[in-house]
Structures are given as structure tokens and as C-alpha cells.
Amino acid sequence: MFRLQTSLPIIMKETTESTNLSASLEDYIEAIYHIVEEKLVARSKDIASRLGVSRASVTEALRALAKKELINYAPYEAITMTEQGKKIAEDVIYRHETLKRFFVEVLSIDRKIAEEAACRVEHAAPPVVISRMIEFIKFLQVCPRGGDDLLTGFGDFCHDGTTREDCANCISSCLDDAADKS
């Protein structure tokens, strides 16, 4: 079942909107965040390797992120993140992970396809869309017809084109379960 992560903020902040980061710069800040988490500092060669881009492209992006005061950068030095940079990276990562998990666990999409889709959608989806997806997940967790059974049933329907039982039996079962809980 899809469970909300509580370590990252539930409500999207105005972080990426207020700094006007392009999708490319969001990818860079996300990569830097992960590298810093692993190695404490990032180097341009690590970023280039992780993103599959040239060192010249990395240098250009690092200058842009430093100008926005999201990273601490000087040529040939280790790169660290500012507090604002960390917040923005966490927001990007949160959007990515939320989308990926929604695609896999709610829409029953293959993990590899979900990862690729999340990478594309995370830059374009407004915060209200991500927040609404989270609210939908919360609703599924509390609705008597929701929960694991609903998600599993939807996954079966997507894969097989059929449901496990007819709708009348399902609704009757849900009403019985709800009555038992009261």
C-alpha cells in the first residue's frame, strides 16, 4: 500500500517557483544533493558522470546555481549546498518520488516506465497536482472501498481487463466491513 513519507514536506513549498529553475537545473540540483548525501561534497566529474553530460555543461550549470545562491562553488573546489539549495533539492526529490510511487502503486505501471515518467513530469507538474495526488492517496487509505483491495483490484484490471468479483459483491462486502468497524 502507498504510504506517505513524513521525512519530506507534505505541502510543496514555493522553492523551485521562486528561484525559476529550469528542468535542467532541477536535475543538476537533485544530482548534487544525492552526491553530497553519499560523499559529503560533490565534484564536477561526479555530477557529469551521474547525469551523463559534459564537464563544460556541468560548469555552466554550477555557475548558474551558485549565482542563485543554491550551492557553494568555486572552480576546482568541492561543491556543497546552501540551506536554500537543500530545500529546493528536497522539493524536487519529493515530487519525483511521489510521482514514481503513485505511478507504480496506484496506477500499477512498471517501475522502469514509472521512473522515466516521474523524471519528465516532476518538472512540469504544478505543486497543486502533486498535493492533490497525495490527498487522493490519503482518501484511498480511509475510504471503506479504498485501501489495498482497491489498488490491487485496479492493478488486476489494468493487467487483465477484468475485476476479481462483480461490483455488487464488492460494494456489499465494503458495507459489511464498514458496519463491523462501527
Keyword list:
182 residues, mainly alpha, Arc Repressor Mutant, subunit A, two-stranded antiparallel sheet, 9 helices, 68% helix, disordered N terminus
Characterize the structure shown.
By secondary structure, this protein is mostly helical. It has two domains: 1-126, Orthogonal Bundle (Arc Repressor Mutant, subunit A); 143-182, no CATH class. The chain has nine helices and two strands. It has helices at residues 15-19, 23-39, 44-51, 55-67, 83-106, 111-121, 127-142, 147-160, 167-181; strands at residues 71-72, 80-81. Strands 1-2 form a two-stranded antiparallel ribbon. A hairpin with a 7-residue loop joins strand 1 (71-72) and strand 2 (80-81). The longest helix is centred in the middle third of the chain and has 24 residues, at 83-106. The protein is elongated and about 65 Å long. Residues 1-18 have low confidence and may be disordered.
